[in-house]
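Recap from last week: sequence in, structure out.
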Amino acid sequence: MGDTAFAFLTAGEIHFGRGVAGEAVARALGFGARVLVVHGANVTRAEWLLDGLREAQRSSTAAIFMSLVVPGWGQLYADVPFWGTVAFATQMYFLGSILMESRRVERQSVRRDREAIGSTFRAARDEYVTEHRERARDFVWWSAAGFLIVALDAYVSVELAGFDDDDPPTPDLDREWTRSGGSGDGFALRLNFDF
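Predicted structure tokens:
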């Protein structure tokens, strides 16, 4: 029995220390679009890295097209399931209303055609046909506007996925500003808000 040949490649870089984990997603994506994460027996230890990689690899263009195909799918892709459900339910309401009004137009058209030409009943049925046709057209416009809003929301949800995760840097307003003996001019600003 012969020995099986194999090769073992070790890490080209090993990073260790405070603040290094924050750079892990960007470094991992630097290797290419497909990243293999070996996490050991407990996947929760690397969940933060996997979430970061998923967020970084999301495409806003894909979210738009997904929302146009199935309303709310782009929101699910952007990991906003509540708004995906709202978008789907809203579009289903509009599409159902379009179908319902179209059926009413058909029914009223049949009833109108049964009446004698010039009768008041025919005129009343004709008004019903016109009213339901206009309602169906209104729901088509509402549905189209809804599709555009849902697609735009999916785009924004992907682009601003990590917007509120980290606290933005803020100046330290309580810091004492003193001159450090160096040459040159400068200024100091101190703000106190007492309530």
